[in-house]
Model the fold of this input.
Amino acid sequence: MKGIGASPGIAIGKAYVLTHQEIKVDQKNIEDKEIAKEQQKLENAIEISKKQLQTIKEKAVSELGVSEAEIFKAHLLVLEDPEFIGQIQYSIENEKINAAYATQKIMEQFIKVFQSMDDAYFKERAADIKDVGTRLLKNILGIASQDLSMLEEDVVIFAHDLTPSDTAQMNKNRVLGFGTEIGGRTSHTAIMARSLEIPAVVGLKEITRQAQQGDMVILDGLTGEVFLNPSQEVLQKYQSKKEMYENYRKELEKLKDLPAKTSDGHRVEIVGNIGTPKDVEGVLKNGGEGIGLYRTEFLYMDRESMPTEEEQFEAYKEVLENMEGKPVIIRTLDIGGDKKLPYLDTPEEMNPFLGWRAIRLCLENKEMFKTQLRAILRASVFGKALIMFPMISGVQEVRQAKELLEEAKKELEAENKKYDKDIKVGIMVEIPSAAVSADIIAKEVDFFSIGTNDLCQYTIAVDRMNEKISHLYQPLHPAILRLVKNVIDASHKERIFTGMCGEMAGDPISTLILLGLGLDEFSMSASSIPQIKKIIRSVSMEEAKQIAQEALSLSTSEEIKEMVEKKLDHLNITIM
Done:
């Protein structure tokens, strides 16, 4: 089967097919003497479910942090809810029905009630009820749950999609690779896989129907190919390819402490993207020289209330201290679009990606925004912090955001709280209007960071999650390269730097073009750092400039990609 290679590497092992099938239970009328037995079944299932959720919660805390584990705390509370559990107990006793049917009946009633509510927060609770209720039902029936935290052997996971909750629970030491039916290179699964350095292929359409539990599979995250029950010949071929890839990665490890410097001495920065303080380890392990994007929205997600200033301060402080003086660009809250907060009332929108999100939302929720700015400022004395505003469309938003930053500074001064008075402020260039007017905005900020995921989406008018038109999502589109050049040229004219934190920055096919266009900083998933560093160290700046100029003269992304591949081959640069 052929999908989209989303995270490099080769996985060979048994298939684990993750399915979310509805469980249908028959109603059984019980006699008085059977009531106690059915109530006991319920009690036992509640205790088993609590132990499972507690294990998952502890795992999520240790691997992802306290805020990411909040969702499992909420699930545990459902099992202690006297209204939910009480109604199941009442149905068993008074309607004289079996425990499984009573649980399913009450669960469906609660889901229906929550789904019918207008409030977005309560609608979200329907998913919690379904998740916990299904777990409880399986434990009553003695059905082994597909619990990704309890994996007991090495597997390649196949699913329709993997949610953040799925990946939070996963026993990552047992996962060899991911394969999903939907998604692209910028989907949650792809980004998570690259962060975890696990091979992944997305867009595999019918994989959960074709793969069976325990099938021997080969998953090639480099080419997007997946083989089910391969022949011995194919298996041997890929075992050799896997060994070659692992040796290649070991060679790249030798570059860890070397600078990203061209053969004629031009220096750029190679830094990492992170979502939580736990991700810092991977950036440092792979030789990252800083953090080019700290996605702070993960502090706000999967929890019941807004993070306090103190909680945010501690998270930012931890990252800055662990980076030991290396730069950390902290992006302010980028929520909206496909990311919503249950405790923040956001409207239903026809086009949420073009709507009330990121800086637009923050400028209307000034106290919430200032709380985050205060936390970042307070943490700034523990390292080298930079502040970045997302989703900027023009200079007016920059000025409004900077005004609120000044207010936060004055508040801290009045409270005798220290902060870095020279903290640098930049913007994420991800809207075409910002890229086109970069010369105007450059006069207001200290740096740019190009977010190519949304810049491509908005410029080419392609929903990057829509499989029907995913082939049109082309980071090497001539229009994108011209916008990138315009942003870099405008920044250099004002003597500020331009970085890139979108997925394009970690794409080896794009590296020589971006280098030749004058990009100062490349920020990417930690696992991509060694390869991009190797490419940069393998050429001169003059060679890179010539490649960039040639790319700008070509008409299609296919022509550009073909040209770059020939240049890499000519320069004897291997990419895997």
About this structure: The chain has 22 helices and 15 strands.
